[in-house]
Amino acid sequence: MLKVAILGFGTVGGSVYERLEKSRKTIEKQIDEPFQITAILVKDRQKDRANLKDVFITTEWEQFKAHQKYDIVFEAIGGIEPAFTYTHYFLDQGIPVISANKKLVAKKGEELEKVATSGGAFYGYEAAVAGAVPIVNALRGTLATTAINQVRGILNGTTNYMLTEMIQKGRSFADVLLEAQQLGYAESDPTDDIESFDAWYKLIILSRLCFGKWADPEQISRFGVSEIENWHVEVASDIGCQVKLVGDARLEEGEIKGIVSPAFVVNDELLASINGVTNGVVIYGEDIHELAFVGPGAGGAATANSMVEDYLFQKRYKGDRVVIAESDSKESASYDVVFVNQASYGECLHWAEAHSVNIIESIPHAEGEAWIVKDAAVDYLHQPVYQLCGDLNQVKSRQHSKVL
């Protein structure tokens, strides 16, 4: 009989327990043997857990790890410590660990994968990226030898919900943030979501899988959504775009380069139609052109579903993604949208002249102007800047615009 343990029993850990019990007969038929959830490490021993029968429950790590020899451990703690110490211990013992901890995987994944390899264990983190969307194991299994040169996605359900409300209902950023917190989509401290750390962690993980190596975090830029204003959304609508928080990574001369930032996504792009808390990931390659994965990006049930399927994946499939020949993305022009108000006009004009910026179009608004720029040194600018994702030929303003 397989011995199963769960680290953490909050929303995700509790949902893993429920999913295992609900699907017990199906899972046991898949793995061809019975299993038992034998131990759970919890933070608060006083909570009512009367429904947990024949399960050893403890708040003490030493008791938990000494309870018995486990066959599989589900890690649902979150954060770096003590999750790193616990995960390291089990992988080193040759015990598979399934995690939903995006921060841990992004920051310590390279080290933990080495420990897993040395210990002969599986380290699974399907649930760490895009909730129920099966992108990680699609890359590890179905697309194990497929060359990929770019990955792009909407990776944070909270901000996507907020932006959807701002666009479709004309609501303010502060208003939708408060509602997202009331609905449980955003934490009381929403920093990880609105400053794009959450999506940044996920893009680092996706980059490792797509390109076969861990990125230098310094090469993945990160910009939050807190500077988005209503008039930015109005300009986007005017030129046929949707405002989204987009993560984009690609190979350039063998190095992984990426960015997570607000973007203007042209309406005919698939990501433009991803609304609410839904996540979407698109991968690009010479042989596949583009493949899209879309689904629920958050929630205990969605995350637990991915964790259980991750476990079943490692039982059925012993290989992993192999990248031998790196495939650089094709060189193409990059376009950004720079927002200029009256107070910053002089500074922006000086920036444009100093860096020989190619301003393709200037779109007027009562609050200022939006400049579409090509291959510009936007890192030197302190104004709100948006990636432009999609075909520039599809960007058309209904208002009078001008070329500067």
Keywords:
six-stranded parallel sheet; 16 strands; EC 1.1.1.3; alpha/beta; HDH_cat; elongated; threonine biosynthesis; 13 helices; 404 residues
Percent in strands? 15-25%
Largest beta-sheet characterization: 10 strands, mixed
- Give the integer mean of the pLDDT values: 89
Head-to-tail CA distance between termini: 72 Å
SS element count, helices: 13
- What is the N-to-C succession of helices and strands? EHHEEHEHEHEHEHHHHEHEEEEHEHEEE
Cα-atom radius of gyration: 23 Å
Structural class: alpha/beta
Number of strands: 16
Instruction: Determine the fraction of residues in helical runs and give it as a percent range.
Output: 25-40%
Overall, the morphology is elongated
- Uncertain segments: none
Domain Aspartate/homoserine dehydrogenase NAD-binding: 8-121
GO molecular function, one term: homoserine dehydrogenase activity
EC number: 1.1.1.3
InterPro entries: Asp/hSer_DH_NAD-bd, HDH_cat, NAD(P)-bd_dom_sf
What's the structural blueprint in terms of helices and strands?
Elements: E1 2-7, H1 11-22, H2 24-31, E2 35-41, E3 56-58, H3 61-66, E4 72-75, H4 83-92, E5 97-99, H5 102-119, E6 123-124, H6 135-142, E7 150-154, H7 157-169, H8 173-182, H9 191-194, H10 197-211, E8 220-222, H11 230-238, E9 241-252, E10 255-266, E11 278-285, E12 289-296, H12 300-316, E13 335-341, H13 345-354, E14 358-365, E15 368-374, E16 385-389
Parallel strand pairs: 1-2, 1-4, 2-3, 4-5, 5-6, 8-10, 10-16
Antiparallel strand pairs: 7-9, 7-11, 9-10, 11-12, 13-15, 13-16, 14-15
